[in-house]
Amino acid sequence: MLSRGKLAIAIVLCTMALFYHAQSQSCPEKNGRYPVSDQCDAYIECVDGEPRRQLCPDGLLFNDKVSLFTYPCQYPIDVDCGSRTRTQPPIPTEDCPHQFGYYKVGDRANCGQFKNCAGGTAYVLDCPTGLAFNSATYQCDWADLVEDCDAEAYLGFKCPPQASGLIQPIRFFRAPNDCQKYFLCVDDRPRVNFCGPEQAFNELISACDGVANVTGCA
Predict the structure, then answer these.
(1) What is the pTM of this model?
(2) Does domain 101-154 have CATH number 3.40.50.300?
């Protein structure tokens, strides 16, 4: 039978072994950041071998692919969570569904605005004229390429039907009341574009031309 002193030493050694085993499990390396197995917005930060559980701000996710010199909490489109599907409960405000993120403003017929939520405050921004905010990429894109945008309603233009047997993948049409503005019909879906200063769209050559060369625009 072990004496009390030897038993105490054994307990201490066992406790230390368990402690260092836990440390090695939590910190594969002395310094680094590692994902939590089931949660995508939490991570373990190891500093000098000591693990600390960290939580990203609401709306951001932990990206385990970035270097130690890069902030690890990033927007969802930049992070592959894999099986880490759980996240913290959202912390919405009056204008933002999450504290951080980019979100479309408007309905399918009004696609040109979006808001950048930072710390729960929404900053509304406009896409360049004729482009629509794409929630899948956080970028302004051609309206016909944005799933939740009705390009015809948004641009106010519907591509005319094509003649039977003469299908053209791309067609051009000048806007009715603006000589500098024209529409591209790509697979019969509209996009809008503009000619530069002192130019007008010439439907005879399907290109921008000098204003003097375009009937009704001089």
Answers:
(1) 0.78
(2) no
